[in-house]
């Protein structure tokens, strides 16, 4: 029986691990499909306090993990297949049930795709959601980024290091991104905005690799094709709540609802970070929630003894 299991190793999970470990709860931390979370797929993080010159996302995560291990957190690879709330709470990991008094869910959110037919089969063949992971494969060729938020601007700006040009395809005529990121992207001569347009299909070559996209202009309805070698989709995220939705309250988009502090409404189950936050979604707010969830869990454990 564990004192506390933490699901997720992004900023929220690792901060919860540091705090619960320092409270001598020797947390078991489950690393899921993307160990380290979304920061491992980003480049320089310029807004995390304490790093005036910025810090690499993966580097920041490695430091947090080291800090969590230093105080006694234990890490295990495992994707939660099922969850049964109770006393104790039970999680099924790789076919095995494990039990815990308290549970902190910090499983984050995963990138969304466009939901176009055949899309899933193209991931890794000229379709991706991670510029940091795949950008360097597309040197001196045209690519595109779909989306108009901070992610899209960040990805597009990063991709200009490699690509010959970066089309920034957005469904409106202005970017949602913060002014500093939008201005930086639009000032880059390699970034070519394609306004009021959506991708309606992917074009592939004989080898099954992306060779372009079909576009629809939402103002005049015209359709066109754009030749490029890779599509980077940056249109937001889905919360990773699938195994928990039957038992915990979620909002209309599937995000866990925090009832009081980080409590989910089920005794001894806490939520932190992007799995419960579609508003702020920052590394620092996720870390802050991880800290809060750890303190909430620690107090709940003390009170229930
Ligand atoms: P976001 O802000 O939700 O933006 C998603 C973008 O994708 C929007 O422009 C949206 O268009 C577009 N979109 C959504 N669904 C679409 C669809 N089906 N087809 C075409 N376009 C679609 O998501 P995000 O950019 O991933 O950012 C998420 C959060 O992380 C934000 O809070 C952001 O500030 C933060 N973030 C921060 C940094 C940083 O500070 N370094 C970097 C990345 C992200 P509309 O504009 O028309 O809705």
CATH level-3 fold name of the largest domain: FAD/NAD(P)-binding domain
The percentage helix is 10-25%
Could you tell me the radius of gyration in angstroms? 21 Å
CATH class of the largest domain: Alpha Beta
| Mean pLDDT across residues | 95
User: What shape does the CA trace take?
Assistant: elongated
Order of helices and strands: EHEEEHEEEEEHEHEHEHEEEEEEEH
Count of domains: 2
Q: What is the end-to-end distance? A: 14 Å
What percentage of amino acids are in beta strands?
25-35%
Specify the biggest β-sheet: 7 strands, mixed
Number of helices: 7
- Structural class, by secondary structure, is alpha/beta
Q: Can you tell me the CATH architecture of the largest domain?
A: 3-Layer(bba) Sandwich
* Residue windows where pLDDT falls under 50 for at least 5 positions: none
Number of strands: 19
CATH superfamily of the largest domain: FAD/NAD(P)-binding domain
Overview of the molecule:
The protein is of the alpha/beta class. It folds into 2 domains: 2-111 and 237-304, FAD/NAD(P)-binding domain (3-Layer(bba) Sandwich); 119-233, FAD/NAD(P)-binding domain (3-Layer(bba) Sandwich), CATH 3.50.50. 24% of the residues lie in helices and 29% in strands. The chain is built from 7 helices and 19 strands. Strands 1, 2, 5, 6, 7, 8 and 19 form a 7-stranded mixed sheet that branches. β1 (2-7), α1 and β2 form a beta-alpha-beta unit. α1 packs parallel to α2 (57-70), α1 (11-22) packs parallel to α7 and α5 runs parallel beside α6. The longest helix is centred in the C-terminal third of the chain and has 21 residues, at 283-303. The radius of gyration is 21 Å and the shape is elongated. The chain starts with a strand and ends with a helix. Bound molecules: NADP nicotinamide-adenine-dinucleotide phosphate. NADP nicotinamide-adenine-dinucleotide phosphate binds next to α5.
């Amino acid at each position: 029986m564990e004192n506390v299991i933490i699901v997720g190793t992004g900023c929220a999970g690792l901060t919860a691990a540091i705090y619960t470990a320092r409270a001598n709860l020797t947390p078991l931390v489950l690393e899921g499909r993307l160990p380290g979370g979304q920061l491992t797929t980003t480049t320089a993080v310029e807004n995390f306090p304490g790093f005036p010159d910025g810090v690499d996302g993966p580097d920041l995560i490695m430091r947090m993990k080291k800090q969590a291990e230093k105080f006694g957190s234990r890490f295990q690879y495992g994707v939660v297949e099922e969850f049964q709330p109770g006393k104790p709470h039970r999680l099924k990991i790789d076919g095995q049930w494990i039990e815990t008094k308290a549970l902190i869910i910090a499983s984050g959110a995963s990138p969304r795709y466009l939901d176009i037919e055949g899309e899933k089969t193209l991931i890794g063949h000229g379709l991706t959601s991670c510029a940091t992971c795949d950008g360097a494969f597309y040197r001196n060729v045209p690519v595109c980024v779909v989306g108009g938020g901070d992610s899209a601007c960040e990805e597009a700006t990063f991709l200009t290091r490699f690509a010959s040009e970066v089309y920034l395809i957005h469904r409106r005529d202005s970017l949602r991104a913060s002014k500093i990121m939008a201005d930086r992207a639009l000032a880059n001569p390699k970034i070519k905005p394609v306004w009021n347009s959506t991708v309606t299909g992917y074009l592939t070559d004989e080898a099954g690799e992306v060779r372009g996209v079909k576009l629809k202009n939402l103002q005049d309805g015209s359709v066109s094709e754009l030749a490029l070698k890779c599509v980077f989709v940056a249109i937001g995220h889905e919360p990773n709540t699938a195994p928990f939705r039957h038992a915990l309250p979620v909002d209309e988009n599937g995000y866990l609802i925090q009832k009081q502090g980080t409590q989910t409404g089920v005794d001894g189950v806490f939520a932190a970070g992007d799995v419960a936050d579609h508003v702020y979604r920052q590394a620092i707010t996720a870390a802050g929630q991880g800290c809060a969830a750890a303190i909430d869990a620690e107090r709940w454990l003390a009170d229930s003894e």
